[in-house]
Write a structure and sequence with these properties.
Strand order of the largest sheet: 3-2-1-4-5-6-7-8-9
Strand content: 5-15%
CATH architecture: 3-Layer(aba) Sandwich
CATH topology: UDP-N-acetylmuramoyl-L-alanine:D-glutamate ligase
Number of strands: 9
Number of domains: 1
Number of helices: 12
Distance between the termini: 61 Å
Order of helices and strands: HHEHEHEHEHEHEHHEEEHHH
Shape: globular
Helix content: 40-55%
CATH superfamily: Ribokinase
Radius of gyration: 22 Å
Largest sheet: 9 strands, mixed
Length: 305
């Protein structure tokens, strides 16, 4: 009976020596991947550890006051997700929208008592009371929305401004300052900065406009203030609608009591790690609402490891 080459039987044309090299390479890749994940976890935990802590003798307002501007009839869920996660972290969340969305504000108030509604005409008086402003979730692309975004950039250069979603499409990049943090995905990055999204361009744009850039993707790239980091938490389940709104609210809330770079880095790490914890339980079958509930547990875990 002729001898059967089992390696050829399993994969025709693959010589035994090549098979051994292939297996060796695969094992090396697994070890390198495990090492990269361990390093990413350590980096993220350091970022969380660097965040300001709530003092036992603090009072209402001491732990952050945030203003969120966004929402439209079409995208009413986006600001709700952002303000819902923010309300779990900061003491006070104000919410405002364009006049035609007064119905939206009433609808949100009927389902959540975790924010204070502010008419657009009163934003100027509220700005001195907050440490950060998030603008963009569900805002829409109307002319009035554009005037609102760029007017805020012009008038409040010393206020921490987090620009997300539609605000990234409306903003004049020449108005960005060191107190701005932007959260684009690849297409929004190209629309805002006029160049392809890449790690090199993330660092270049952060340096050019002096702010913080958080490029969202399979890996997240965070740059600003001479610092740069790559976050590897997260999984394919986070392509669901609304997960970006949760992230924006999380980063903005952290920015109230922390510098923008650590807020951005800790935000993408916590958001992605919460998604990874969900992935272990249910695979990719989770929603932005599930992520919203998992983030407080993830934050607690990060503080106890």
């Amino acid at each position: 009976m002729p001898t059967i080459n089992k390696s050829r039987q399993l994969r025709p044309g693959l010589k035994p020596g090549r098979l051994r090299r292939s297996l060796t390479k695969t094992a090396a890749d697994v070890r390198a991947g495990a090492q990269a994940k361990a390093q990413a976890l350590e980096q993220g935990l350091r970022a969380v550890e660097s965040l300001s802590k709530i003092k036992v003798d603090s009072h209402k307002g001491d732990n952050g006051r945030l203003l969120i501007i966004g929402g439209s009839e079409q995208y009413h869920g986006a600001p709700w997700l952002a303000l819902s996660i923010a309300a779990k972290i900061v003491d006070v969340v104000y919410f405002s929208s364009v006049p035609e969305n007064l119905g939206l504000i009433k609808k949100l108030k009927s389902t959540s008592a975790e924010f204070i509604a502010v008419p657009l005409s009163e934003i100027a008086s509220r700005l001195p009371q907050v440490e950060a402003v998030l603008i963009g979730p569900g805002l829409g692309l109307s002319r009035q929305a554009g005037v609102l975004v760029n007017g805020l950039l012009k008038s409040r250069p010393k206020t921490k401004l987090i620009l997300d979603a539609d605000a990234l499409k409306l903003a004049d990049k020449r108005l960005l300052t060191k107190n701005c943090l932007v959260t684009p995905h690849a297409l929004e990055f190209k629309k805002l900065f006029g160049c392809a999204a890449s790690p090199r361009h993330v660092r270049a744009m952060a340096k050019k406009y002096a702010g913080v850039v958080v490029l969202k993707g399979v890996k997240d790239y965070v740059a600003g203030g001479g610092q740069y980091a790559v976050n590897a938490t997260g999984n394919a389940g986070m392509t669901k609608g609304g997960t970006g709104d949760v992230l924006a609210g999380l980063i903005a809330a952290l920015a109230c009591t922390n510098d923008l770079f650590p807020a951005g880095l800790a935000g993408v790490f916590i958001n992605g790690l919460a998604g990874d914890r969900l992935f272990k339980r249910v695979g990719v079958y989770y929603s932005a609402g599930d992520l919203l509930k998992e983030i407080p547990r993830t934050l607690k875990w990060c503080q106890t490891v």
